[in-house]
Amino acid sequence: MLSRVANSIYWLNRYIERAENVARFIDANYHMALDVPGGAAAQWQPLINTTGDHELFAELYGETSQEAAIEFLTFDRNNPNSIRSCVRAARENARSVREYISSEMWEQLNTFYLMLSDAAQDTSMDLPHQFFVDIMNASHAFIGITDATMTHGEGWHFGRLGRMLERADKTTRILDVKYFILLPSVDYIGSPYDNILWAALLRSASAFEMYRKRHGRIHPEKIVDFLLLDGRFPRAVHYCLTTAEISLHNITGTPRGSFANEAEKQLGRLLAEFDYADIREIIDGGLHEYLDNTQNRLNVVGNAVQEVFFSPRPAALANESQTQE
Amino acid sequence: MKFDGYDTEGFYDELFDASNQPRPGADLLIERIDKLQESELQRRQRAAERALLNLGITFNVYGHESQTEKIFPFDIVPRIVQAQEWLTLESGLKQRITALNAFIDDIYNEQKIIKDGVIPADLVFSADGYRKQCLGLKPPGRIWCHITGTDLVRSGDGQFYVLEDNLRCPSGVSYVLENRMLMKRTFPQVFEACSVQPVTDYASRLLDMLQELAPAGVRAPTVAVWTPGIYNSAYFEHSFLAQQMGVQLVEGSDLVVIRGEVMMRTTQGLERVDVIYRRIDDDFMDPQTFRADSMLGVPGLMEAYAKGHVALANAPGTGVADDKAVYAYVPEIIRYYLGEDPIVANVPTYACWRDDERQYVLENLDKLVVKAVNESGGYGMLIGPHASAAERAEFAQRIKAKPRTYIAQPTLDLSRVPVLVNDHFEGRHVDLRPYILYGKSSIYVLPGGLTRVALKKGSLVVNSSQGGGSKDTWVLNAGGGASPESPLRTEEEKPC
Predict the structure, then answer these.
(1) Which one, of B287, B391, B369, B264, lies nearest residue B324 by Cα?
(2) Rg (CA), chain B
(3) Chain A neighbors of B280, CB-CB under 8 A
(4) How confident is the model at residue A246 (pLDDT cuts 50, 70, 90)?
(5) Phi/psi at A311 (5° precision)
(6) Contact yes or no for A315 and B252 at CB 8 A
């Protein structure tokens, strides 16, 4: 397939995944802020930090407030990672490969885009829970339609590779920020809020129910274990890396466990580390350092994919934010 | 929904005759619409528009900041062309394209028509679409204009005239196909009853024609559609045609010339391309041959083309024959190459570079339409009867300053077709753009084509960029009978 087409399918899936994650972060945070007494604003700054766009936010809005945070993350076109910007970028990419993907995928994505454009113009809306649920559902529908209507060949694997790398990145980010906030707050430990905050973290990754089934009691170390190292939960980093690696080897035909290019080498090493990781060692060595390192390694993988398969990048989108944070 | 109050207001109407009676062939359609419940037609119209938006069948408008994508407005009442009329048009279009192709081939090779004094040399060489880089080129089968979309209008006298020959990258055929799809969904029973010639095999015919162009010895040619990219106003069409033909849609950055061969960059390395249906202007194709500042082009492409390693449709340089000044000579061109009189006439045209004709134009600006020869899409135009005195005075100055760049034509009473306006019908002016495929083995004229409607009351400008819409065009089969495009039949069963 054309490199440009592969690039667009990869990015369109990353952008959809990114939009879905931002919607989930907002929704989970919104509900947590209702449960924690006082200082709702204090819950929003960490969320902005999660996306990596805190400097842009400070420049555009100054003070942190719930309204500003939601506007910035949902509709602001100046924020390249707002839900609206992501869906717009996904649609632009889809438009450029419209003859390659299935009509059903295009129509679903186009309808998703039109829904957001309508919502952005409707100033009377008070951003109900349902709106963010609709966004997450639209993303899930897109994934389902993709699986059901597109040949599971090279293009499909590029899409899944993009989605899995994006999702792994987002899970490490939400874990990083929340863990940083949660762990040292001695005031909360043992208080009723302790459970609420940790549960909110799980909800940010749609992981609450599945965690309960797996581990039962809310326990910080087990939560970190679940979100990082679980091999079967679809938002856990380990699961994402495994699936991404399978797709990458489907694209190239190189047997798993060996490598023929930089992308396979980098992703294979990162996955091997997760295959043999131990949660106790990770915590003892410093969770933040571990997450930070994982994000950097994910960027290295992303750049290698870009270099090996997509170079040169398409002219039409050269100015877009098709870069990793 | 009744046509009771509908008034042709003295214009030639495509569905009704001068005494407001349905024309032959239109009666069935009108009877069916008459039987529909009040508001049923509006409901179907709205459903069709919503479908277009959700499907993303849109075009881009330059200069609109807020909303750059719009659906091409679609009117639900089809335009009907009688079988006999169509036969005449079809033979006229084939005649015209054969002569124009011979003209282009002559201009870039022997230039006999100039030597014989039929058309002035300076007029040809100053044409905006003339490309000296094409001199001496001999494309496969000596065919230059593979895909043409000729603009026809019908005047108050009931005759069709050729308004413009679009020989470069005519667009709009995707709307013909999509409009037909929408109409079949919307009015399946009417399709059963009327006998409409099919348009659905356009993509197959286009693919066949393109594959024929492949360099000798290539058994399974790789065909690609070349688009300038998603910001081009016709991007939807490029993508649609590639999808319908099942070929690659490429941008300039996907292509590279290596050792005289055109290759595309894939995730598995480079792959050879044999035929390119290019939807990009000559100027931007190859920075080594044409405009050096083109960011969209492929360096070395023209060299590969000249060597016959890749085929291009349309060939570069065809624009010389759709220059509005050259247009004035097309009747002579037909007589010169074919020894025949034109079957479909030109609109009478005054050439402002001829002193006597310029004088006439300047004295009669209030009755004429003046067109800049190098502009299209309804830009650079003066519609005399609708213009203010100041606008006419300004155009008079422009004509005197650059006579070569203007032609003038009488304002035509373009024919009209009923369109749905809220809860009733009103007449609106239309033109007709049939599409012609000039292949090595035959010339195919798509039965029907794009009927463009000036949706603004009284307006004569049908361009999509200026408030135009479109309609499905039904060319009836001779003799009537069951429709070959009945929605119950499958693709395979359709006669070609």
Answers:
(1) B369
(2) 23
(3) none
(4) very high
(5) -65, 135
(6) yes
Contacts with B102 (C-beta within 8 Å, 6 or more apart), sequence order: B337, B338
Spatial CB neighbours of A297, under 8 Å, sequence gap ≥ 6: A266, A270
Q: What is the mean predicted confidence (pLDDT) over A230-241?
A: 96
Residue with tokens 């790398």: A165
Please, which residues bridge with residue A296 across strands? none
Q: If you average pLDDT over residues B345-352, what whole number do you get?
A: 93
Residues A145 and A8 in one domain: yes
Which residue type, as a one-letter code, is found at position A14? R
| Residues A170 and A307 occupy one common structural domain | yes
Residues A200, A270 share a domain? yes
State how far residue B54 is from chain A, nearest Cα, in angstroms.
6
Final residue belonging to a domain, choices A149, A166, A186: A149
B229 touches chain A (CB under 8 A): yes
Contact call for A111 and B231, based on CB within 8 A = no
Domain span holding position A291:
153-313
Count: domains in chain A: 2
Q: Do A135 and A266 belong together in one domain?
A: no
Alpha carbon distance A92, B230 (integer Å): 8
- Using an 8 Å CB-CB cutoff, list chain B residues near A315: 229, 251-253, 295-296
Residues A32, A85 within the same domain: yes
Q: What is the pTM (predicted TM-score) of this model?
A: 0.83
Q: Where are the domains of chain B?
A: 27-197+322-341+416-493, 216-309, 350-410
| Interface confidence (ipTM) of the complex | 0.73
Q: Is residue A138 domain-shared with residue A182, that is, in the same domain? A: no
Q: What is the CATH number of domain B350-410?
A: 3.30.1490.270
Which residues does chain B have within 8 Å of residue A98's beta carbon, measured at their own beta carbons? 56, 239, 243
Q: Does B376 touch chain A (CB under 8 A)?
A: no
Following DSSP, what letter does each residue of A64-117 receive, concatenated?
--HHHHHHHHHT-TTSTTSHHHHHHHHHHHHHHTTTTS-HHHHHHHHHHHHHHH
* pLDDT score, position B44: 86
Whether residue B53 lies within 8 A of chain A, CB to CB, comes out as: yes
- Mean residue pLDDT across chain A: 86
- Are the beta carbons of A113 and A45 closer than 8 angstroms? no
| A3, A92, A312: residue with CB nearest B267 | A3
Contact A312 B253 (CB under 8 A): yes
Q: What angle do CA A14, A15, A17 make, to 5 degrees?
A: 65
Q: Are A3 and B251 within 8 A, CB to CB?
A: no
The topology under which CATH files domain B216-309 is Rossmann fold (3.40.50)
List all residues 6 or more positions away from A236 whose beta carbon is below 8 Å from its beta carbon: A171, A207, A226, A227, A228, A229, A230
Q: What number is the average pLDDT over the span A249-274?
A: 95
In this structure, are A286 and A160 located in the same domain? yes
A308 shares its domain with A160: yes
Each residue's pLDDT tens digit, A121-136: 876 666 678 889 999 9
Say what angle helices A220-229 and A192-204 make with each other, to 10 degrees: 0
Per-residue pLDDT at A44 exceeds 90? no
Please answer whether residues A291 and A176 qualify as being in contact, where contact means their C-beta atoms are separated by less than 8 angstroms: yes
Phi, psi of A127, rounded to the nearest 5 degrees: 45, 65
Reading the block at residue A285, the tokens are: 């060595």
Of the three residues A109, A131, A149, the one that is the final residue of a domain is A149
Query: Which residue in the block uniquely carries the two structure tokens 């965690």?
Result: A211
B182: exposed, middle or buried (Cβ count in 10 Å: 0-12, 13-18, 19+): buried
Q: Which spans in chain A are helix H?
A: 3-35, 40-51, 54-61, 66-74, 83-96, 103-121, 129-149, 154-182, 192-204, 208-215, 220-229, 237-252, 262-275, 279-285, 287-305
Distance, CA of A112 to CA of B94 (rounded, Å): 46
